[in-house]
C-alpha cells in the first residue's frame, strides 16, 4: 500500500467475481483486474485475489465527493453478496455490514488518508489510478 492510495479488501461467502465482471459500470482491464470509473469523475481499481476476495484501491487524487459517492455505490453493490466482510487497510477496521455508520467511517478514513497525501504530494486532482498518478509525477 503506497502513500498515494487507500486500500480496502472485500470478501464474501459466495463467489463474486462473475457478479463484478457482469456489472456494466465496471470495466475489465486485464486478467482479474477491473476498474470502476466514470469519465473524469472517479477511478477505483479492483483486483480479485480469488473468486470470493477483491482488493479495492483508490488513488487519493480522485475528486473527493465523486469518489466517495462511487465508493458508497460499490459497497452497496458488494454487500448485497452473502457473508460480505470489508477490511479498511488504513484503519485495520473490519465491517460485516454496510450502513450509514460504516459509510461515515470509510469517509473519515479516506479524508484522513487524503490529508497525508496532500501534505506529501500537494493538491493533485484527477480521476486516475495509481500507475497514471506516478507516471504524471515523473513527467513533471
Describe the structure.
By secondary structure, the protein is an alpha+beta fold. The chain has four helices and seven strands, in the order βαββββαββαα. The chain has one domain. Helices cover 38% and strands 29% of the residues. Strands 2-3-4-5-1-6-7 form a seven-stranded antiparallel β-sheet. 29% of the residues are buried.
How are the SSEs placed, and which strands pair?
Blueprint: E1 5-11, H1 17-22, E2 26-30, E3 33-38, E4 42-50, E5 53-59, H2 64-78, E6 85-88, E7 93-95, H3 100-121, H4 130-139
Antiparallel strand pairs: 1-5, 1-6, 2-3, 3-4, 4-5, 6-7
Summarize the structure.
The chain has helices at residues 17-22, 64-78, 100-121, 130-139; strands at 5-11, 26-30, 33-38, 42-50, 53-59, 85-88, 93-95. By secondary structure, it is α+β, with helices and mostly antiparallel strands. The chain has one domain (5-139).
- Please work out how many helical segments DSSP would assign: 4
Number of strands: 7
- What order do the strands of the largest sheet run in, or round the barrel if closed? 2-3-4-5-1-6-7
The biggest beta sheet, please?
7 strands, antiparallel
Mean pLDDT: 95
Percent range for helical residues? Answer: 25-40%
- Low-pLDDT runs of 5+ residues are none
SS strand fraction:
25-35%
Using only C-alpha atoms, the radius of gyration works out to: 14 Å
Distance between the termini: 23 Å
Please provide the ordered H/E string of secondary-structure elements: EHEEEEHEEHH
Structural class: alpha+beta
Tell me the number of structural domains: 1
Principal-axes geometry comes out as: globular
Amino acid at each position: 500500500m503506497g502513500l498515494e492510495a487507500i486500500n480496502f479488501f472485500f470478501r464474501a461467502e459466495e463467489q463474486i467475481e462473475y457478479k463484478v465482471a457482469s456489472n456494466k459500470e465496471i470495466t475489465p482491464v486485464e486478467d482479474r483486474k477491473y476498474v470502476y470509473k466514470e469519465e473524469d469523475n472517479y477511478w477505483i481499481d479492483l483486483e480479485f485475489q480469488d473468486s470470493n476476495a477483491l482488493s479495492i484501491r483508490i488513488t487519493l487524487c480522485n475528486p473527493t465527493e465523486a469518489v466517495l459517492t462511487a465508493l458508497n455505490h460499490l459497497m452497496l453493490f458488494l454487500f448485497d453478496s452473502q457473508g460480505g466482510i470489508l477490511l479498511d487497510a488504513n484503519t485495520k477496521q473490519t465491517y460485516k455490514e454496510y450502513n450509514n455508520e460504516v459509510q461515515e467511517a470509510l469517509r473519515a478514513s479516506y479524508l484522513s488518508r487524503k490529508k497525508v497525501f496532500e501534505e506529501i504530494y500537494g493538491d493533485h486532482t484527477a480521476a486516475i489510478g495509481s500507475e497514471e498518478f506516478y507516471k504524471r509525477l515523473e513527467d513533471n
